[in-house]
């Protein structure tokens, strides 16, 4: 397409020069206007100097064309013909001005290009004749079509930019939410194990080492999560979404194993039909369900002795269930409970995938969190 456009401009410009030569006029004025216009339109982007801004590219050739027309009128030279080459160059410059010049330069440069184009018939038709009106009307139609197309494409560029900005903003908000959930999970574990260490310091000091090792591991994982997420937030590239620390089904095993303490046993029951090739967004949501449920066990059911995580695949669904046997008798301090938005955000994530989240008392005692996702036939 670009090659066709360049070829058309060259052919039309050669035709302009042939017209000027056939009418026995000097070639250098027309050649100068065309050369300046060609440089403005066809200068390669990669080799374009920084000072050659869109407003300069579109204003200077139009000014040269208008000065040529003014000179013809002031010097009283005989009729100077004009051709399609200069018309095409000025229309190209009008398109560039409307689409690429910053406001209000786009309006000023666009008007200058349009005026230079509409003045072309004056070189040949000295007085206000019927032919001038016909050419002016045709010029207005060309100006309107060119400016309208450029304005439409500029609006699409703007919408695309706004959409990209909103997408990045939404992605960063989601990443920040992930950071909160990951760090809250690890910090809650640190608090629980610190409470346990304080109780054991007086009664069972010989068993403190596993608890302290758990605290160290949780703190290390929290710092690693923050480091990864901050690195992603600093990156504005399109690959940001692929590096979000959202987790997957494979990570559920590490999550469950890391949750266990000397006082709490954790069990993972995974149906063999639950494979690792499920959609990534479903795996991430399942991971978050387990993470939030385990975090709430630490916050509200510190006396629980057994926590069971079950991953099942009944038919075309993935079912994630987390149950505990706690009574809620041992809880963290109120400041460590969080703002209560965990399950709300989790419900939004699950329902966005067409799933369902349920949370409530278990069949006998304790608490039960269950999420169901549609995943298709296995």
TrEMBL record:
Keywords: ATP-binding, Kinase, Membrane, Nucleotide-binding, Phosphoprotein, Transferase, Transmembrane, Transmembrane helix, Two-component regulatory system. It catalyses: ATP + protein L-histidine = ADP + protein N-phospho-L-histidine. GO terms for cellular component: membrane. Pfam families: HATPase_c, HisKA_3. Its EC number is 2.7.13.3. The chain crosses the membrane at residues 26-46, 58-76, 105-126, 132-153. It is an enzyme of class 2 (transferase). The keyword Phosphoprotein applies. Coiled coil: none annotated. PANTHER family: NITRATE/NITRITE SENSOR PROTEIN NARX-RELATED, NITRATE_NITRITE SENSOR PROTEIN NARQ. This is histidine kinase.
């Amino acid at each position: 397409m670009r090659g066709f456009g360049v070829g058309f401009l060259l052919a039309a410009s050669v035709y302009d020069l042939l017209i000027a030569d056939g009418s026995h006029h000097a070639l250098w004025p027309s050649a100068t206007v065309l050369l300046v216009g060609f440089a403005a339109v066809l200068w390669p982007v990669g080799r374009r100097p920084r000072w050659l801004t869109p407003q300069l590219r579109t204003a200077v050739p139009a000014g040269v064309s208008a000065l040529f027309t003014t000179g013809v009128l002031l010097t009283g030279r005989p009729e100077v013909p004009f051709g399609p080459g200069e018309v095409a160059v000025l229309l190209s410059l009008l398109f560039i001005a409307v689409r690429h010049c910053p406001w209000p330069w786009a309006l000023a440069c666009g008007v200058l290009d349009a005026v230079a184009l509409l003045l072309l018939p004056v070189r040949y038709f000295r007085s206000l004749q019927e032919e001038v009106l016909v050419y002016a009307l045709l010029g207005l139609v060309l100006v309107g079509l060119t400016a309208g197309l450029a304005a439409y494409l500029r609006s699409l560029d703007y919408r695309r930019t706004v959409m990209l900005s909103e997408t990045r903003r939404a992605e960063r908000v989601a990443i920040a939410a992930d950071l909160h959930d990951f760090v809250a999970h690890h910090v809650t574990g640190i608090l629980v194990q610190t409470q346990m260490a304080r109780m054991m310091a007086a009664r069972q000091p010989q068993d403190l080492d596993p608890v302290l090792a758990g605290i160290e591991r949780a703190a290390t994982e929290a710092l690693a999560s923050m480091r990864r997420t901050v690195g992603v937030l600093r990156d504005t590239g399109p690959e940001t979404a692929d590096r979000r620390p959202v987790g997957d089904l494979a990570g559920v095993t590490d999550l469950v194993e890391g949750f266990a303490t000397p006082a709490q046993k954790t069990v993972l029951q995974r149906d063999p039909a639950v494979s690792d090739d499920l959609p990534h967004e479903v795996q991430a949501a399942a991971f978050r369900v387990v993470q939030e449920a385990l975090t709430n066990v630490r916050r509200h059911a510190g006396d629980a002795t057994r926590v069971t995580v079950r991953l099942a695949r009944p038919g075309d669904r993935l079912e994630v269930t987390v149950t505990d046997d706690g009574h809620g008798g041992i809880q963290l301090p109120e400041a460590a409970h969080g703002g209560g938005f965990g399950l709300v955000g989790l419900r939004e994530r699950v329902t966005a995938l067409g799933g369902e989240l349920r949370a409530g008392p278990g069949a006998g005692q304790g608490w039960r969190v269950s999420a169901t996702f549609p995943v298709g036939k296995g």
